[in-house]
Amino acid sequence: MSIMAYNGGACIVMTGKNCVAIASDLRFGIQQQTISNNFPKVYRINDKCFVGISGLVTDAQTLYQKIVFRHNLYKLREERDMSPSVVTNLIANMLYEKRFGPYFTEPLICGLEGPDNKPFISGMDLIGAMVATNDFLVVGTMTPAMYGVCETLYKPNMEKDELFETISQCMLSSLERDALSGWGAVVHIITPEEVVTKKLLGRQD
Hints:
Distance between the termini: 21 Å
Keywords: Cytoplasm, Nucleus, Proteasome
Protein name: Proteasome subunit beta
CATH class: Alpha Beta
InterPro entries: Ntn_hydrolases_N, Proteasome_beta_3, Proteasome_sua/b, Proteasome_suB-type
Structural class: alpha+beta
Number of helices: 4
CATH superfamily: Aminohydrolase, N-terminal nucleophile (Ntn) domain
Pfam family, one: Proteasome
Oligomer: single chain
Subcellular location: Nucleus
CATH architecture: 4-Layer Sandwich
């Protein structure tokens, strides 16, 4: 088994019209053994930027703590929050610094960029090789199942309610096809005015 799939789990980010969504499953397991069904892989960096980190859970938690530390230093020095593109470059640099003994994680970054609140999503592999797109990105053990559903259901410029429905259907239908993730999911919708968080019920078997 790949070390990236040791704890299972998966994340999706998706863009809409002046909004973005990020979702992850809630399973924490050790190979085929499920330990918890209340373990989201999505972390809030600030009001307009979230990070989803799949992969080895211990490395994901370490990476998140280092991101928070760097973000707090940035806020003290610059007196403002990091934008999603700055967070992307920060994480990419942190991962590349550790390329000879990498964190076994694949982060996804999403948020609203600049004063016009332009949707921004990006992702990278475990040594920080970045990809940025304007539709959706997926990581985790159920990636093969997620790609097909996302490509089928996604369309540009969705309003926040339609975006929630689309990312929820993508997540739940993909969970049915992967034994290492699932047990429910959580979805965050980021808009210029608010962050809406909703939990999805999934099969518990």
